[in-house]
Amino acid sequence: MPTKKELLQRPIQHIDIKQHNVVALVDAMKDMAYSSRDTGRAADIYEMMLRDTDCGVILCLAGSLISAGLQKIFVDLIRNNMVDAVVSTGANIVDQDFFEALGFNHYVAGDEYKYGAGDADLRELMIDRIYDTFIDEEELRICDETTHQITNSLEPRPYSSREFIREMGAYLSKNGKTPQAGGRDSIVLAAYEKNVPIFCPAFSDCSAGFGLVAHQHARQGKPHVSIDSAKDFYEITQLKIANPTTGLLMIGGGVPKNFAQDIVVAADILGVDASMHKYAIQITVADARDGALSGSTLKEASSWGKVDLTYEQMVFSEATIALPLIAGYAFHKNAQAARKGKSWTQILDQVPVTA
Amino acid sequence: MPTKKELLQRPIQHIDIKQHNVVALVDAMKDMAYSSRDTGRAADIYEMMLRDTDCGVILCLAGSLISAGLQKIFVDLIRNNMVDAVVSTGANIVDQDFFEALGFNHYVAGDEYKYGAGDADLRELMIDRIYDTFIDEEELRICDETTHQITNSLEPRPYSSREFIREMGAYLSKNGKTPQAGGRDSIVLAAYEKNVPIFCPAFSDCSAGFGLVAHQHARQGKPHVSIDSAKDFYEITQLKIANPTTGLLMIGGGVPKNFAQDIVVAADILGVDASMHKYAIQITVADARDGALSGSTLKEASSWGKVDLTYEQMVFSEATIALPLIAGYAFHKNAQAARKGKSWTQILDQVPVTA
Amino acid sequence: MPTKKELLQRPIQHIDIKQHNVVALVDAMKDMAYSSRDTGRAADIYEMMLRDTDCGVILCLAGSLISAGLQKIFVDLIRNNMVDAVVSTGANIVDQDFFEALGFNHYVAGDEYKYGAGDADLRELMIDRIYDTFIDEEELRICDETTHQITNSLEPRPYSSREFIREMGAYLSKNGKTPQAGGRDSIVLAAYEKNVPIFCPAFSDCSAGFGLVAHQHARQGKPHVSIDSAKDFYEITQLKIANPTTGLLMIGGGVPKNFAQDIVVAADILGVDASMHKYAIQITVADARDGALSGSTLKEASSWGKVDLTYEQMVFSEATIALPLIAGYAFHKNAQAARKGKSWTQILDQVPVTA
Amino acid sequence: MPTKKELLQRPIQHIDIKQHNVVALVDAMKDMAYSSRDTGRAADIYEMMLRDTDCGVILCLAGSLISAGLQKIFVDLIRNNMVDAVVSTGANIVDQDFFEALGFNHYVAGDEYKYGAGDADLRELMIDRIYDTFIDEEELRICDETTHQITNSLEPRPYSSREFIREMGAYLSKNGKTPQAGGRDSIVLAAYEKNVPIFCPAFSDCSAGFGLVAHQHARQGKPHVSIDSAKDFYEITQLKIANPTTGLLMIGGGVPKNFAQDIVVAADILGVDASMHKYAIQITVADARDGALSGSTLKEASSWGKVDLTYEQMVFSEATIALPLIAGYAFHKNAQAARKGKSWTQILDQVPVTA
């Protein structure tokens, strides 16, 4: 059996789309068939979405994307005004992005571990596995503990996940976890600095959940921090109302996809005749045929009045291949040239806070 | 174009496993290969889980399962002490189960609608589509409005989704939405009556979310109801601590799978040396190869210390085919004979409530 | 490392649809959603196809189906006049069905072998693996050698695979490999006795190919047996011309699906205005989205003029689960009551043989 | 309903890997996860395979690849000595490559046709559909007719598909279907000129099958051309014996994958102790979990003694995305620098021809 040190040797490296001009390659794909043509059309739609400066771009993240080497893409999109809000699973934002922001890494696992042959050994070594990737569980416990500290530092009241994640950004900023201080850039930090709100509608379902449980347990009935998921929904609906033209760039499906699509209906319920999402792209390997939302087509969402049919594209591909092409295409065509940051956090700071 | 009435003619009928003795069929599958053998082994594990009367059975639901005709299976499992807690997406519990409890139906859609060819027409008619199934959006709005009323009737404070869903059960009970009063049985009602807690860790991501947003909007800064997702996590962890032997019956993946698996770690963080889930079954069509949790194998979960390797089985099948076989097998072998209801809600009623 | 004997202990058992009346179960599935409803509709179409006594039913087999425990279903369909011709990959017919007819078995492999962890050990033990199933390679070599002997016994000329497989049936009949002689029933034997032609359009791509290569090698330029794949296509086209109403029951895709669909066009090329296949069912897990034929929908085939749109159904399910339901449904509804064997081999015996 | 002319307006364009240097992009993928890392490793293995000048590279093609815009990649691989033999489904070689060589095109279909909504209209217009691609059926009939003419021009005897396809190459060369004569390059032509053998083990299952059926029908018992699939297997086995070090570059699975893997066993049966394939790459979207060969892992093939475990890589991706990266990587690293054409056809010309 190899040692823990031997197994955790080769860190995942995040791809830098700025280094790879894929414009000609993606242009060539547009006249082919199947996923390449879909990728080409998705790249066109993302470009359109960005050139439409009225459009607020909502990035949705499901699946283990940061651990897979896609972190820098999302950081670059935020820093270049190519994303105005993020809706994500908790794992991507806390267990993976914030975790790396604290200085930790994900590691390449050998092919022989992919299908579970070594899992009993890994358990003994406290190495967690995500398909072909390793994590040091002891480092993950430090991440849990950090969210616990942040929770304890807050005034007891209900918070949206967005407010809580903003505090995580402030923590990184104050504690020298920034490129300027020799640390690394991260989604949580970039979003904090650029006033890009991040929502995790199932926020307790991640490393932060462990911190929150420990916090509430210690308080035993005394006033404590809570995470109000209804407030998340209310806040993001306010953004739709304030900025009616919207587009979705979705990686994976799940709760983030559903949550972001639903804000059209929620605005309607608040008495605002909101337009459907004007642009929508989803990259996924999920299958439509079990009826689950993750693989449901964007045409199906149009029957619900959530997504407009004109500029929508599903790309059936694993994201580590398709996203560098789509995001890289828009970046190298400089689609973001005329965009300014929407600083949506500032709109949300005016939503009343209630105990 | 057909009329709305013509399109909404043939209601989805829920399969009744009590009517179909599949024991011999499933026994025959055990000596075959691929998904049939996996189905056979999953049925064996579910039987074992139930005969182990110490075992608390947690049912996890993701995907559109109630709209697909599986509601009665879950109701029967609850009423026969074959499930002790439920973790679900909001859509299954509110938009689909509670919706049908209010007297509404899902409808069979013609094959020609499956791939989106009629979605523009459906939009006009206010018919929502889930793959091959239709919903009357006007009826869904009544469901949203009902959750709004329930929210307004509550004392303003943070609630776990479990507490809120219990109020939904009380609403059904009080308002004659029961078989005794001529209504139909439902998961929310059965769980209410049997003291089976239901958790929706992303609770605002459904019809109830619309009711909550409307409520919070109307309150404009005044005290209001909030949904504390950390409290959900805290509560379910208490169950793991109170009842250390646990088994998971998972349909689909997503947030419910992750949330239920995580309670082992959460108990550990509260200082309790919790055992891994002793039994675990997952029925899914998701693919392991994109690294997303929904399709990740249960062996992978064992590297995280969440699931024991001895009695775990993935069944790669669409649930409407595999679940009637697995649940029906255990039922007709009378695996539940010695089980009594664990009434887990009563444990949770002792968790302190904090404003 | 376990011994070979320890690993080859538990033979695959073929499911017997005659023992499982699934009519009520499948009827219940018709009002559900997703794959269950598709399975229900496929069962209806198979029933219709059989009650239409004019209809010649062509069974197409791709994937490792016999090794998976489905052999007896196909034998029963042939013996009960529910199949009039078979188009298959060579592996199903020779390496698996004829192999079992010779007295050998496939074996259940432990779950831990599924993903390849033990393949190096298996290689050493001469055990071949098909996903979760084992084969004794030494027994497979005996099967190769038997086809070699059969080849050597034939008059040197081009044969259709259909003619060759008929000789394999004769071999079984003459050599006591029949239930009457204490052996087991098989597809090759049942088809021989019922005059049901079997075509393997890629016949050298299996155990028989090894026998043929050995034969041709030994002949070194002298007259020898050859396999004329054009003759296969010619023969099956004659069947379409002689019996215009046809239906397809397809398990998997690949060459068998394409070959059987193509006979409509081939008849047209011979100057006969052939009707499209009137009924078509395909059970598959393949995906339409890579454009490959295996997962292409039957609607797509209708654009080619091969399959009529009225009675076609794709069932996206692994076959070991779906086929017992579909075939068992038709059998227990006695849809075959009025059918007589079409004895299509007799039509083909009139096709001229040319050196 | 649009006219045929309106629908067939935008020809599929074949991607030119020579124009896209993807080396840095693929290098970046090697330190990521999931399919990107697999793609990176597959590119490394293809590079290794080419730098090993002893290695005979066998390209296997299944799925509709030429119609999808991948034709030029295969032509470039052949012309640059990066492929020494081809094993393919008939459709890729005859209906698609030879078809384009005759001057015809495949066409981009609008997204609204993908799921079959317009298939009845297409049928009327004689437009055939492959998922998102159109073909003019009248042009396809000219292709069928051309193979009929070629068949009629041959001396009556059994041919391997390899011999027949070589005659198709000669036809293109003689009839001005070459770049020099103002035509276009094609796989069939390039292989003819470079002495690269092409095998279609299920040769009658394509447009050539129609020509052969028409030929045999017209001959009515007189001597005619036949296609000896056993001879195909014998010939390719001779190549393995003459050139023991081999590598497989497989796009899709099906018959080509099985056939190419089997030659190791066939050589053994001829008394030659052949080594396993030293290198193997497969790009596929197929699933391992139905036990079918198309998605079976290369580890599984190692249990059969067909593929060595050291340098094998599955890439779970649709080929139009992954192949330009893998083939382009090897090309731009100039891995082919020291390779000379193996001209394998010349070995096969010495295999005795028998009537």
TrEMBL record, chains A, B, C, D:
Molecular functions (GO terms): deoxyhypusine synthase activity
InterPro entries, A to Z: Deoxyhypusine_synthase (IPR002773), Deoxyhypusine_synthase-like (IPR023496), Deoxyhypusine_synthase_sf (IPR036982), DHS-like_NAD/FAD-binding_dom (IPR029035)
This protein's record includes keyword Transferase: yes
Keyword terms of this UniProt record: Transferase
Root EC class: transferase
Domain of life: Bacteria
Gene Ontology CC terms, in alphabetical order: cytoplasm
EC number: 2.5.-.-
Similarity field: Belongs to the deoxyhypusine synthase family.
Name assigned to this protein: Deoxyhypusine synthase-like protein
Organism this protein belongs to: Edaphobacter aggregans
